[in-house]
Amino acid sequence: FHALLDALLPHVDERVAYLSIGNEVDVYLALHPEEWPAYQDFYHDAVAYVHRLVPRLKVGVTTTFNGTQGQAAHHLAALNTASDVFILTYYPLDEQFIPRSPKAPLIDFPKMVALANGKPLILQEVGYPSSELLASSEQAQAQFITNVFNAWKAAGERIPFLNVFLMHDLNRETCEWFATYYGLPDVANFKAFLCSLGLRRTNGTPKLGWQTFVTNSTVVGLR
Q: 215: which residues sit within 8 A by CB, 6+ positions away?
């Protein structure tokens, strides 16, 4: 991994602010709990090596918000002791991929800020499905986006980066590919979740959430 970083980091310029070493690692490690100590050793070594090569680069490891609420919470806290930033993905779903209330960000964002324990909170992915199969809708998705921005504004500088996922729904072929990739090709709810996260439909026409996103982005000074 040091050799990979040696090859990569000379090409990382000032436009790159954050480096995540591992994506949603809690999902894999929940299935392989015996590997937590080894991954922690690997990650802490990697952070130290990046700091030596590019001191300005802020390093973290991406985990799911749901993972911070489960049995692995103490592992994630230990893992992040070496982190410069606390990185999460956020999809407020139950175990059947049914979204919680669109008001969830108003409750969950303060929890995430507290979990970051003073470190900048990086929200790598924030999304909400609009599929009626999941008892959701375009209106619910739009309400979620509004509440995301309200919760983000309330958090202020503690959340310097937030990425809304996705701009467009996945087309059928891509959706099926990802469902197979994640090992859930026959789970209708998962595909409905994954394939209705976009704020626009596959043909480019906007859902209700798109204008909500544009309006709120303008208010907070984004372009």
A: none
Backbone phi, psi, residue 182, to 5°:
-80, 0
Six-digit token string for 12 = 């990382």
Q: Give the predicted TM-score (pTM) of the model.
A: 0.95
Per-residue pLDDT for the chain (223 aa), expressed as one digit of tens each? 999 999 999 999 999 999 999 999 999 999 999 999 999 999 999 999 999 999 999 999 999 999 998 888 999 999 999 999 999 999 999 999 999 999 999 999 999 999 999 999 999 999 999 999 999 999 999 999 999 999 999 999 999 999 999 999 999 999 999 999 999 999 999 999 999 999 999 999 999 999 999 999 887 665 4
Amino acid at 118: G
Task: Name the residue among 209, 98, 62 with its Cα closest to residue 147.
Answer: 209
CA distances from 9 to 17, 54, 57, 85 (A): 12, 7, 10, 18
